Amino acid sequence: MTVIIKSLRIRSKSGISRIIRHLQNGDENEQVAFLRGTPADIRDMQRDAMARSTTYSVRHWIIAPHEATTRPQIRYVLMMLAKEFGFDADRAVVVEHCKKRATADAADVHWHVLVGEIDPATGRVLRTSFDRIIHELVARVSEYKFGHAFVQGKHTKTVIRGLRKRKLGCIADRLETLVGTETTVPLEAFTHAQHQEKKRLGLDLPALRQAVKTATDTATSRADLVEKLAASGMTVMVGEKPNTWIVRDDQNNLIGALHRLASKRKSEINQLLTETPAVEAEPITAPPLVPDFTSFQESETSFQRAENSSSRSELLDQLRRLGRGLIMAQT
What we know:
By secondary structure, the protein is an alpha+beta fold. Helices cover 48% and strands 16% of the residues. Among the domains are: 3-150, BirA Bifunctional Protein, domain 2 (2-Layer Sandwich), CATH 3.30.930; 192-274, no CATH class. It has helices at 17-24, 39-51, 71-85, 131-146, 156-165, 169-181, 192-200, 205-218, 222-231, 258-261, 266-274, 293-330; strands at residues 3-11, 31-36, 56-65, 93-98, 109-116, 234-238, 245-249, 254-257. The strands form two sheets. Strands 1-3-5-4-2 form a five-stranded antiparallel beta sheet. It has a three-stranded antiparallel beta sheet with strand order 6-7-8. The chain is elongated and about 135 Å long. The termini are far apart.
């Protein structure tokens, strides 16, 4: 997708310090800017949730456009999220991170939006129903409004119905045209949780994913792919699930499923890794359907000769026995 929107629900009992450290981390990101709110506001969200003994304290959205996006445009995305999930946009904490992406053509700025799961004034809880579908809907509307290219997501048909319900038929028409021509739905290479898990192991998952994708796109055989992945410190092997190949690093840490990392179908990966090159064989000449006429004649003649010889021999034996019988009868 051109605009990627994901969300995490932070549990009240898990603490909030880790996410705040991530938001303030200036080492990993070249630039960090709190456009709205402060870390203290995030801690207040946590306290409000604990005071009411709710399971979740903070809703955390990550907005990562592929194309260059301005701050006013992100404000537009924020307003749509607020309308869809039922919160006041003015109480959201918005953080801007500037960081080089794994792919050279991707924009290097992304945003974090954090809102308390509980509205301290009304006590209302944020809506959660169909959140992934709403994320896609907001992303598609944003792409259309900003003039970005878009592709169909996993829930495009449902999104089209939602757009028409919201009187956004022009965007729905564009998506319907897309569904009629596009057959491949992109798979999510990894989740935010997986990204953070690998980061704690010292692995840059986006960079590894790009290396896997490049290797798979350019490999012409299984041996070629194995060599290309080995050059990046990775190995490919059969996974536990049927028809699934996985990628591990040189420390045997699981990176992920090969087809997801490469954004390809399982059938494409299996064809690349199991296909055996064809071996050219010499043409086989079929035997003649009719026997050679001369050989057949010779065989028939030999058979007749043998048959004739056998008949004369039997005839002579019979004559000898008759002769002996006549002699004995005369005596």
